[in-house]
Amino acid sequence: MTDMIAKDGVEEETVEAVKSLSGEYKYGFSTDVEMEYAPLGLTEDIVRLISEKNEEPEWMLEWRLQAFERWKQMEEPDWAMVDYPKIDFQDIYYYARPASMAEEKPKSLDDVDPKLLETYAKLGIPLKEQALLAGVEAPEGERKVAVDAVFDSVSVGTTFQDELKKAGVIFMSISEALKEHPDLVKKYIGTVVPQSDNFYATLNSAVFSDGSFVYIPEGVKCPMELSTYFRINAENTGQFERTLIIAEKGSYVSYLEGCTAPQRDVAQLHAAVVELVIQEDAEIKYSTVQNWFPGDAEGKGGIYNFVTKRADCRGDRAKVMWTQVETGSAVTWKYPSCILRGDDSQGEFYSIAIANNFQQADTGTKMIHLGKNTKSRIVSKGISAGKAQNTYRGLVSMHPKAANARNYTQCDSLLIGDKCGAHTVPYIEVKNNTARVEHEATTSKVDDDQLFYCRSRGMDEEEAVALVVNGFCKEVLQALPMEFAMEAQALVAISLEGSVG
Amino acid sequence: MAVSQPKLEGAANLAAHFTVPTGAKWANDTRANALSVFNAQGAPHKRDEYWRYTDPSALTAVPTAPAALFSNDEAPMFDGIDRVRVVFVDGIFDADQSDDLTLSGANIETLADVTGADIHWAKDLYGQLEANGQNPVQRPLAALNTAVADQGLVIHVTAKCEKPLAIRYVHSNENSDAVVHHVIKIDEGAEFTLLESGAGAARFNSVLEVDVADTAQFHHVRTQGRDHERKTVTHMFGRLGRESVLRSFTMTVNGVLTRNDAVLEFTGDDAQATVAGACAGDGTGFHHDDTVFVTHDSVNCESRQVFKKVLRNGATGVFQGKILVKEDAQKTDGYQISQGLLLDDNSNFLAKPELEIYADDVACSHGSTVGAIDDDALFYLISRGVPRKQAQDMLVLAFLAEAIEEIDNEELAEDILNRLAAWMERR
């Protein structure tokens, strides 16, 4: 909770009203589903157990064990501007799944525990095909969204399977993909984010329990947007999902990812890995709305979000676009990156990171320009309120062979209140003279004139701030798919509740 | 995190290579403290965050690699202006070549004399600003300097000085390994200009501590010598009082390795500071690093960092700048620009312009650009009959001029620009 000091002309009652609203996390319910846990802690046996539960091929187990061996030798990174109590990696459940799924995977969504479906309904993700936002029955022209939902450690259902199958698109949980398309998984997993990449990625490689797998064949434009919803429900569990998306030559896919977790006063760990492989002329749009539980207004609990996301533009003219709206998590450590290997390939990164109360976010991107005429664009908007710390950390690297490469970076920070911090740590490495790099960063507070203007037209301070902040983020919000943009806009306002007063 | 073995060994070797001078008790204590800080930190290493772009091994090698002397027929820098001239040869004060150390408005002494005196005002300043500047970023070579330096000037400025003090560092021995430490205390309302020039030694380590009191002004213009093989590491630690002004400009041409650290702290309100640099680097050996750390801890202060680097034939330019705005430093205006101009595809520009801000009513911005010479501008000049080489030089000079403009003394600015033009032609 931020310090609520009644300013001149503000009624005490108003302050109270704002107080009662603030810090409330609307997704903070937990679902009472019977869970099956693996034993607490992490040992080789747990890794074996996870692999066995998922009925994985032998090579996958070997791969996991290799990662586990490596992880034991690694040290937790400490360079990010985040401060949190040391994580006891032996005090976490590495695998939890609803008991109803323990015996046998549900054959169809109808077999899924209704309580689970209810959870997703509460989240506003209608899982069932007929209940979808833009379902089969939807009027012509409306967009369809296929959803894969991951509940704690396992995937509960993927909608629209049939229609996707017709287009040749494979969209399923990675555990299913390991059974049905083991060769594809084997060919690509770990080729973008290697096992040894970093502490959390290595941990994920050893213990990832589920996630999404997408394969778009050559020349196919995925007929609908694909979406995954991640939810951590069980207490004291870590969620380690792994997403792998492969876009073959000339294909296109737009992928949406959303995350929530119940309100708990013990911090929970989330360490995901996302790998994107983009071949010649292909394009992936990857949008994230991350709204993990940020901890309460006193900074208790919340999700530690340590995520490794990377896109590899392997072919010429490959294109990737990361868009993220980061409003949740107690601690965020996330740098979606682009390796621009193919000539003329393009990477874009649009980010809104909002930190309120005691949240800490250290996020940014890496643009590695290897190929000729590669282009990248970074637009990062950081908003700090309450006692939060928000850091942009990024790298733009132009390798000697990246002739005529271009980068434009803009990172703006907005401070709301005088107890928060906004930091910018860009690294710029240019080793080619035909490359052009431009970097701009500004830090400022919410403009008084703009606030005054809004307030003089009858808005209350909170509405006014939300409007100004939405304006500040506009460039990024515009990069989101439409349905997401609406949600994100509302989320921006919700996240800032209680930040003024 | 534990300090790695190579860092500790590096520190031990360097410490054994130099001797810690003895003098008055306070000086001995300060030196002993600095030495223990240095030994605890270890020598800088390529794996340290603040050395990631600059390999410090040439600065930590024992003994230092020799550097060939560079002969030229140019008139020494700043010779044309009225000043008090002081000469250091291979880092040793040379009284014969220097003017009398008298300057109205200032009291100038040598470090050796001062550290021998039991009672001296420098007791509260020598090594103190350096020690403050060790946090949050370690600067082991500055701590080493404080521990082993017995050469330098100690200057107390009590009024506005009528002319500048110009220090010339002569490099005359191929194997010289110099450590120089200056302390300057500028009283309230006083004003002082320091000019520095020359390569100094085969390896040159300098620390400059400047305490600028309320409403005082410090002006600093420096050129770093053209000796191709010299290695230089300099540190400036500045503390700024209320309504004070600090302006520092450095021009660097050649030299195999240059690292200029500037660490400034605003302690009084309404003060202003500028740190600027222009650098022209030529050749694979050339490596130039500007590392600046500005801390705002008072209200309504303004800081500017302006750095321009022209690089060719495999030269490397580095800029690491940081603006830290503490919680109560409201109304801060922080500005930072770093630009690299790469004249060929072997050269590198590496930058890390950082902002760390804890106050909300601030306007801080930074910009960084890297690119080649603008083809359109070049074409324009050539189409008007300017030969290509000359056209390119004109554009390079225009690019660097923006940093040189940060010098507020026109005569000095012009002198530097003219010399630069001459250097461009001859290398």
Shape of chain B: globular
Q: Share of helix among residues of chain B?
A: 10-25%
Largest interface: A-B, 38 and 37 residues
**Given the structure, what is the number of helices of chain A?**
11
Give a count of the beta strands of chain A, DSSP E runs of length 2 or more.
24
Spatial extent as radius of gyration of chain B: 21 Å
Mean pLDDT of chain A: 80
Search tags:
heterodimer; A: 501 residues; ten-stranded mixed beta sheet; 24 strands; 33% strand; B: 427 residues; alpha/beta
Can you put this structure into words, describing what you see?
The complex is a heterodimer of chains A (501) and B (427). Chain A has helices at residues 12-21, 44-53, 58-73, 114-122, 161-167, 174-180, 182-188, 199-207, 448-456, 461-477, 482-495, and strands at 35-37, 96-98, 145-151, 154-158, 170-173, 212-216, 225-231, 242-247, 252-260, 268-270, 273-278, 283-290, 303-313, 319-326, 331-334, 337-340, 346-355, 360-363, 366-369, 375-385, 389-398, 406-416, 421-430, 436-445. Chain A is α/β, with parallel strands linked by helices and 501 residues long. Chain B is α/β, with parallel strands linked by helices and 427 residues long. Chain B has one domain (5-374). Chain B contains nine helices and 20 strands. In chain B, the strands form two sheets. In chain B, strands 2-1-6-8-10-12-14-16-18-20 form a ten-stranded mixed sheet, covered by helices on one side. Chain B has a ten-stranded mixed sheet with strand order 3-4-5-7-9-11-13-15-17-19. In chain B, a hairpin with a 2-residue loop joins strand 1 and strand 2. The chains are: A alpha/beta (501), B alpha/beta (427). Chain A binds chain B through residues 78-79, 81, 398, 400, 403, 413, 415-445, and chain B through 1, 49, 53, 327, 330, 340, 342-372. Strand 23 (421-430) of chain A pairs antiparallel with strand 19 (348-357) of chain B.
What is the topological layout?
The complex is a heterodimer of chains A (501) and B (427).
Chain A: H1 12-21, E1 35-37, H2 44-53, H3 58-73, E2 96-98, H4 114-122, E3 145-151, E4 154-158, H5 161-167, E5 170-173, H6 174-180, H7 182-188, H8 199-207, E6 212-216, E7 225-231, E8 242-247, E9 252-260, E10 268-270, E11 273-278, E12 283-290, E13 303-313, E14 319-326, E15 331-334, E16 337-340, E17 346-355, E18 360-363, E19 366-369, E20 375-385, E21 389-398, E22 406-416, E23 421-430, E24 436-445, H9 448-456, H10 461-477, H11 482-495
Parallel strand pairs in A: 3-7, 6-8, 7-9, 8-11, 9-12, 10-13, 11-13, 12-14, 13-15, 13-16, 14-17, 15-18, 16-19, 17-20, 18-21, 19-21, 20-22, 21-23, 22-24
Antiparallel strand pairs in A: 1-2, 3-4, 5-6
Chain B: H1 5-17, H2 25-41, H3 57-60, E1 84-89, E2 92-94, E3 102-103, E4 106-110, H4 111-116, H5 128-132, H6 140-148, E5 153-157, E6 165-170, E7 177-186, E8 191-197, E9 203-212, E10 217-224, E11 231-240, E12 245-253, E13 257-266, E14 272-282, E15 287-296, E16 302-312, E17 316-325, E18 333-342, E19 348-357, E20 363-371, H7 375-383, H8 388-404, H9 410-426
Helix pairs in contact in B: 1-2, 2-6, 7-8, 8-9
